[in-house]
Amino acid sequence: MTAEHVKVLIIGSGPAGYTAAIYAARAGLNPVLYQGNQPGGQLMTTNEVENFPGYPDGVLGPQMMQDFERQAARFGTSIRRGAATKVDFSGYPHRVWIDDTKEIIADAVIISTGASAKWLGIPSEQRLNGSGVSACAVCDGFFYRNQDVAVVGGGDTACEEAHYLSKLCNRVYMLVRKSEMRASKIMQERVLKTPNITVLFNTETEEILGESTVTGVRIRNNKTQEVRELSIAGFFVAIGHKPNTEIFQGQLELDKNGYIITKPGSTYTSVPGVFACGDVQDAVYRQAVTAAGTGCMAALDAERWLAMQEVAMEV
Question: Tens place of pLDDT for every residue, the chain, 315 residues?
């Protein structure tokens, strides 16, 4: 099968990918965007988004991503189903394979494959995802004002989530599987000094309770084997995120956790002509609005880089 040559290839959708597509299309770069395994990204599992500018009454996550997609398509982005399964950035132009079959040759590549939250793996967790179960306190904490919630995890992220929720919620239960936290000392002290955070050590989550929304959680002490139930309205999983960068290992410079390293103040990666935006290169903020911002940056960086290549060829 003959490879298809494109000027700008965007791998992945979500706020970062679609924003990159909007900017690249308006710049006349004729971008081609492959949506990936989860078209629209993590927001497709988010019920209500209230913290993205321009939606004063809030918006459903899937509806918001449909709006992004329509806007990208309006300016001429070729939006396609399919996921990148292999890349070769060793030469130029860059080569990317979609679904192990179709080969794309791209002058510039924008990566927006995102990151996936790590989950506990219990059935009720996925069933109630978006209906009381969340992996982002900053995104969803507001919905649980003056209610009781639980956070599972023992690292810095879990401590940050619990502390954030303590300002909004009546009571925050922090469920820690081991007899001690693995968070930094300063984060542990902050949590332990917060009056409305209750830390339960040696605690395993057996089941999240509720039919259509979370009403409680059944937990077990893994030392005494005591089982009990907590009445809660929200359950936050804070055991980490995994960047979707498997196919870029050995092709791009990644940090110790697998996130793509970009040059400070830009979206440039370790390979010229390859740019990264959104959660795939952001382990800190992980918000829709920051992802969209870096999507804009990636398109502008790609546009300028391509222009420099054209100038160099003319000289």
Answer: 689 999 999 999 999 999 999 999 999 999 999 998 888 787 876 767 888 999 999 998 889 999 999 999 999 999 999 999 999 999 999 999 999 999 999 999 999 999 988 899 999 998 999 899 999 898 899 999 999 999 999 998 899 999 999 999 999 999 999 999 999 999 999 999 999 999 999 999 999 999 999 999 999 999 999 999 999 999 999 998 899 999 999 999 999 999 999 999 999 999 999 999 999 999 888 899 999 999 999 999 999 999 999 887 775
Q: Pick the closest to residue 282 from 164, 113, 130, 145 (CA basis).
A: 113
Catalytic residue selected from 140, 148, 279, 301: 140
Q: How many CA atoms lie within 13 A of 192 on its CB side?
A: 12
Catalytic residue among 107, 139, 159, 279: 139
Kindly report the CATH class assigned to 119-237: alpha beta
Asked if 291 contacts 279 with a C-beta cutoff of 8 angstroms, the reply is yes
**Residue 136 designated active-site:** yes
Domain coordinates in residue numbering, the chain: 4-116+241-314, 119-237
The length of the chain in residues reads 315
Catalytic residue among 67, 88, 136, 159: 136
Q: Is 139 a catalytic residue?
A: yes
Residues 206, 220 contacting (CB under 8 angstroms)? yes
Fold adopted by 4-116+241-314 = FAD/NAD(P)-binding domain (3.50.50)
The H-or-E segment that residue 261 falls in is: none
pTM exceeding the 0.85 threshold for the entire prediction: no
